[in-house]
Design brief:
The complex is a heterodimer of chains A (about 400) and B (about 550).
Chain A (H helix, E strand, L loop, with lengths): L1 H33 L6 E8 L7 H16 L7 E5 L34 E2 L5 H9 L18 E8 L1 E3 L2 E4 L3 E4 H13 L5 E7 L15 E5 L23 H11 L9 H5 L4 H4 L4 E3 L13 H4 L21 H7 L16 H4 L14 H18 L4 H4 L1
Parallel strand pairs in A: 1-2, 1-4, 2-3, 4-8, 8-9
Antiparallel strand pairs in A: 5-6, 6-7, 9-10
Helix pairs in contact in A: 2-5
Chain B lengths: L6 H14 L8 H10 L3 E15 L4 E13 L8 E9 L6 H15 L7 E8 L1 H12 L8 E2 L8 E9 L4 E2 L1 E5 L10 H14 L3 E3 L11 H19 L16 E8 L7 E2 H17 L11 E5 L2 E4 H27 L24 H20 L1 H7 L4 H15 L3 H5 L9 H25 L1 H17 L6 H10 L2 H15 L6 H22 L3 H20 L3
Parallel strand pairs in B: 3-4, 3-6, 6-10, 8-9
Antiparallel strand pairs in B: 1-2, 1-5, 2-4, 7-11, 8-10, 12-13
Helix pairs in contact in B: 1-3, 3-7, 5-7, 6-14, 8-13, 8-14, 9-11, 9-18, 10-11, 11-17, 13-14, 13-18, 16-17
Classes of the chains: A alpha/beta (about 400), B alpha/beta (about 550).
Chain lengths: ~400, ~550
Amino acid sequence: MANFIFLPILALINLLFLLTTVHSNSFETKATQFFNSGHTNNWAVLVCTSRFWFNYRHVANVLSVYRSVKRLGIPDSHIVLMLADDMACNHRNPKPATVFSHKNMELNVYGDDVEVDYRGYEVTVENFLRVLTGRLPPSTPRSKRLLSDDRSNILIYLTGHGGNGFLKFQDSEEISNVELADAFEQMWQKRRYNELLFIIDTCQGASMYERFYSPNIMALASSQVGEDSLSHQPDLAIGVHLMDRYTFYLLEFLEDIHPASQANMNDLFKVCPKSQCVSTPGHRTDLFLRDPRSVLITDFFGSVRKVEITREAVNLTSAAEQPVEATSIRKEPKSEPLSYVDQLPVAEIIHQKPKQKDWHPPDGFILGLWTLILLVFFKTYGIKHLKHIF
Amino acid sequence: MGLLSDPNRRKALTSLLTRLNTPIWGMPVEWLVKTMQARGLEVFTQSFTRTLPFPDENKERYMVRGTNIYGILRAPRAPRTEALVLSAPCSPDNSNNQAVGLLLGLAQYFRSQIYWAKDIIFLVNEHDLIGMQAWLEGYHHTNITGMDYTPLQGRAGSIQAALSLELSSDVITSLDLVLEGLNGQLPNLDLANLFHAFCQKIGVLCTIQGKLQRGDWDTAEGYTHAVQTMMLMVLKQASGRPWGDHGLFLRYHIEAASVRGINSFRQYKTDATTIGRLLEGMFRKLNNLLERLHQSYFFYLMPSLTHFVSIGYYMPAFGLLATILLLRALDLWVQLGTPAQVTEDGAGEVEPPSSPGVLSVLTPVVISHLTGVALYTLPVLSQETAVEHFPVSETEAVVLTAIAIYTAGLALPHNTHRFISGEGTEQGWRVLKLVALLYLAVLLGCTALINFSLGFILAITLVPAAACVTPHMPKALTALAMVLLSPGCTLLYCVFIFQELQEAPVTLPEGWMLFLSVISQGILDHSLYGSLVYPLLALLIYPCWLLLWNILFWK
C-alpha cells in the first residue's frame, strides 16, 4: 500500500527536479548566448588606397562604409579612417566639400563630421601595417592608433586598385597578400583581435584573402581572381564614376541594418550577386570558428552592447551561491523569460515597417462595429437563423 | 550640363558670332583686349616682327609685323602651376573669323565654372605660324629662329596641352583633326583618341586627312581607302612642316592638335554650340589629367581615326631597307679585303693588297659636300644678283638658283676626276661606294628615327640606286635611272602623288609650279620655324647622292 503512495510521490519529485533542470538549462543557454560572440568592443579600419581625381569612387566607397559604421554605433575614437586623397576639396570638384555616392547628388557621404585619421601621403603600406600591428612610435596620437584588445571585433575595409595578390597604394607601392596575412598573424599572436572581418573591393580581390592563416578571420571580396570589379554609375555633372558596384550594393544592404537588427553573415554573403555586380563576389569562412549563420552583422559593423535591465539588486559578495539553487528555492515564476531590451526605440528613429508582433485583440470600435453588423443581420433576416449557429 | 543647357549662353554665343561675321581687316587689337577683359580674363599682348629671307608668294608676305593677344583664365582654387591653351589664328583674310567668336564664347562660359584645376590661356595669334612661333618663344624664353618679339608680360605655368581652332563658317558638317607637326612630330595618340571619342559621344562627324572613315575593312575598296589615308599622313609627315598652328607646340613637348571645321555639301550641319560642347568636354578631360599625356604612342601612322600602325610595325620595313645597304657594304668590304686574282702566267701585276685608302676618296666626298653647302646657302644669298640679271621675282630666283645648283652637280664627275688621285683603279670606286653606302645607311637610319616618313621615302628611292650602281653599267640608262631616283625627283613625285591622294590631280605644268612653291616653302620653313628637311636634303642627302653619281661616272 505504501508503495502505491511512494511511487507517485517519487514521480512527482522527479518531475519537480526535471522541471528545475530544464529551467536551469534554458537559463544556461541564455547565459551562454549572452557571452556567445565574445567581443566587448568594436573597431573599424577603413582604407582608401588610391589618389587622383578619377579615383573618386574609392574615396566614396570608404566614406559610405564609414557612414554606415558610425550610424550603427562605432564612435570616431574606434575608427581609423585612411583616405589617400582629398576629393572633397580637390580643385576639380564642381561641388566642393562634398563627396557623393549616388548620382544626381542624392547622398553626400562627406558631411560635416567626418574625421580622417590618415590623409594624403600618410596612407602608405608601412603606416597601414603599423596601425594593424600596433608598432607605432610613441608620439602617435590616439586617433591614429588601433587600440584593440583580445575582445575586440575589428572590421577592415580596403578599396583601391588591385591585382592578383597585391593592392596598390598611392600609385607607387603595393601590399601583397602574404604581408597582409603575416600582419594578421602578428595581430593574433599579440591578441589584438577577437574576430576579424576583412572586406576588400578591388579587382581580383579574392586573391588578397587566399593567404590568411590566422584563426577567427572572415573575409569577403568583390571579385574573384581574374575578374575586374566594376564601377557603378558616372555622374555627368561631376564627371567621374561615383561608386563601385559591390560597395554600392553593400551600402544599400547596410542602410536597412539598424542596431537591433538580427541579420547575419549569410545575408552579407548574398550582397551583390553576379547579375548586379558582373563580377563574382567571394568569401572565406574556414578560419572562422563560429558558424556564419550565427554571426550578426552588428557584431562587426555596429557597436552593440547586450544590455539586460534588472530591477533586482544582485548580491555579488558571495560568489559561491549557485544561481541554479536560487531559482529552485524560489518557486514563484521569477523565471519569466528574459529578453534583451531594445537599445534604441528603433521604430521612432528608422521609419520601418514594424516587425511581426503579438496579435492584439481588435479595438473596441471594431468590436462594436461587428456587433452592430451582426445585430442588423439577424434583425433583418430573422432570429430563426440563430439556430444554425447554435 | 554644358553650353547647350543654358539658353542665355546660347544666345550670347550666337550674337557674338553674328557680330563677328563682319570681315576683320587686320587684327582688332583694342576690341579683342576689351572683350577679353570684359569676360574676366587677364589680357596681355605681344608684338613681333620678322623679315622673311625672301617674299612668300603663297601667303603674300615679306616683312611681317603683328600682335598676339592672349587672355589667361586663372583656376579658381588651384595654384598657377599648369596651363592649357586654346588658340585661334586670326589672319587678315576671313578664313578664321568664327573661331575667334567661339573662343570668346568659351572663355565666357569657362570663367563661370569652378572646376578648373589648370589655368586656361585663350590665344589669338596673328600671321598664324609666325605669330605662334613668336608667342611660344616668348613663353619659354628661347630664341631659336631669330625673331624679334616683345617679352610676355603674363605667364600661366607649364603648358600641358593645346588645341588650335580653325573655323571659317558658323555651321559645319565635319571636324577635321590635324596631327602632323614640325619635323614630323606627332602628339600623343591619346589626344587623337580623346577627340574621336568626344566626336562620337556628341555625334559630330570627324575626319582625318579630310577623308571620312569607312566601315568595311575587309573589302578591297576599304583597304585602299585606308592605305590612301595613311599615305597622305606619310607625305604630310615627311614634308616636315607644321600643318596647323599646333605643330609648333610639339617641339616643347606640349601635346597639341588642330581642329578644323569643314563645311561641305552634306545635309546634316552642326552649329557652333555643339562644337563648343565638344571643346568644353575636351578641356574638362584635359583638366582632369594629373600628368602630361604620355601613356600612349608618340610614333604612329593612322589609316583612320580608329586604327593606328605603331612604330613596332612599320620600323622593321625600314630596317629591311637599311639592311640592304649594310649587306652591300659588307660585300664590298669582303671584296676589298681579298686581293685581286693573279693572272695565269703570273706576269700580271698584283694589286697591292692595301686599298688606296679612305683618303683617296676624300676628294669626291669633300667636293660633294661643298656642292651641298652651295645648294644650302647660295639660293638665298644670291637672290639679289639673280634678280638684277634675270627678269624674275625673288622667290623664283631663289628656287631657280637651287634647281640650277642641283643640276650643276650632275656635271661634277666630268670636271673633278682630274683631281682624284686614286682614280682609274678598281679599288677606288669600291672604297668610295663603301663609304657612300655606310654614310647613307647612317643618314637614313637617323632620319627614320626622327621622322620616319621622310626616312622611308628617301630610302625607297635611294637604296636601290645605292645598292646597284657601279661604273660598269650602261652609262646613259643608269644615269637616267639615277636622276629619276634622285632626291629632287622624289620630291616631284611626292607632289604629284599628294595631289592625287587629295583627289585634286594636277597637270604637269601645274605640278611643276607646285613643285617650285614646295621648294620655296621648304626654305622658308627652315628659316622661320627651324624645319630640318631642307638642310637635311641639301647638306647631307644630296652630297650622298652625288657620291653615287660619281661612282657611276668613275673612270
